[in-house]
Design goal:
Strand content: under 5%
Order of helices and strands: HHHHHHHHHHHHH
Shape: globular
Number of domains: 2
Distance between the termini: 18 Å
Largest sheet: none
CATH architecture of the largest domain: Orthogonal Bundle
CATH topology of the largest domain: Endonuclease III, domain 1
CATH class of the largest domain: Mainly Alpha
Oligomer: single chain
Number of strands: 0
Helix content: 55-70%
CATH superfamily of the largest domain: Hypothetical protein, domain 2
Length: 244
């Protein structure tokens, strides 16, 4: 909704942040009725499944529908996904509209879930507990399977930032573009050091303009959604929505 652009851009930093979070700050996990704030292992696992589905170049609507099909079929643990087997996974992926990536995703899911079972007893919270740093955490997640890349890891960890001690993924390009457009940073973000500096600047900005009942996760989510749903549409026209 490009028409909302001037309204969000106007006013002080506090006013811009408040409007941004109010309009765009709904977490992707919240759309799926996943509650991550208490780091419950079952909720974290469900978000991991959703992150894998969101990580493909496929519409957000299809990823959400497919996630719901997974839950309807009881695919809510590594054990149950492995027990289901490849053929059944393909069926459920197809039923959610994930046909373009069904074979590839079924293969990836089985590899990832088998490794999660073997190495961490199917528990992502245990994986996090065994990580020594944010970089080590990201590496451990990627090592679960060759199909887990930067996009999936970023989606997964973004909504665990501040909940898991080592969840500290790089700020995504869409969030950086949104922050620049809103005048929340003057940095260009041309290299890793600058992107890290933008993240730190935004965290400080949030701490000074905190909204009651919200966290930095909501602010970061709002920036991603703003960058995706407003800036990208403005520049490139209507495209299918993803949660990157």
């Amino acid at each position: 909704m490009v028409t909302g652009l001037p309204e969000v851009q106007a006013g002080t930093s506090r006013e811009r942040i408040a409007r941004l979070v109010d309009e765009f700050g709904r977490r992707f996990s919240a759309e799926l009725d996943i509650k991550l704030d208490n780091s419950d292992r079952d909720e974290v696992f469900r978000w991991f499944v959703a992150s894998i589905l969101f990580g493909a170049r496929i519409s957000e609507k299809i990823a959400i529908k497919t996630y719901r099909k997974f839950m309807e079929n009881g695919f809510d643990s590594a054990d149950r996904i492995v027990e289901a087997g490849w053929d059944r996974l393909v069926e459920v992926l197809d039923s959610g509209g994930y046909a373009r990536y069904d074979f590839k995703t079924a293969t990836k899911m089985l590899e990832v879930m088998k490794n999660l079972k073997d190495r961490f007893g199917g528990d992502l919270c245990r994986l996090h507990a065994e990580a020594s740093s944010p970089t080590d955490l990201e590496m451990k997640i990627k090592q679960l399977g060759k199909g887990i890349g930067d996009v999936t890891v970023s989606i997964f960890l973004r909504e665990l930032r501040g909940i898991w001690r080592h969840a500290d993924p790089p700020l995504q390009e869409l969030a950086i573009t949104a922050a620049q457009s809103l005048g929340l940073t003057r940095r260009k973000g041309k290299d890793e050091a600058e992107r890290l500096a933008i993240l730190k600047d935004l965290q400080v900005l949030w701490s000074r303009n905190r909204i009651e009942g919200k966290s930095f996760i909501d602010f970061e989510t709002a920036l991603v959604r703003y960058g995706k749903d407003v800036l990208r549409k403005k520049m490139h026209g209507n495209r299918r929505s993803t949660c990157r």
